[in-house]
Write a structure and sequence with these properties.
4-stranded antiparallel beta sheet; mainly beta; single chain; about 130 residues; 3-stranded antiparallel beta sheet; Gamma-B Crystallin, domain 1; 2 helices; about 30% strand; globular
Amino acid sequence: MSITKKFIAGLGGAALLAGITLVGAAPAQAAIGDCPSGSFCFTADADFTGDAFGSPNNVSSVPADRDNRATAVYNHGTQCSLRFYQLSGYGGRSYPMNKGDAVGNLATKAYPDGGTWNDRLSGFKFCV
């Protein structure tokens, strides 16, 4: 599977909601280098392994099978920073990421109310 297809395959049903046309959406295994330029990508496991999801568009609610399953995140956006959000609809606490930032294990990032940011991503928005 090509680099771009690995992350695009992780989009699954969200493609229709986000207005993206995809072919052959299925769970994917990915690496940080597989995240297409201009996209925000995350994987279910540390060090950019496991099921992947990525999009070049704002996503207010990630697909249910990806909700609260992010352990590694990468802003491969080309124009600006972004925030990912704890709750769907850009709600709850948010985590800022500059263009080009990557975190290989969100379990190393403290959450403001205790615990870590691991498995707390429900949506993301560019240029905020």
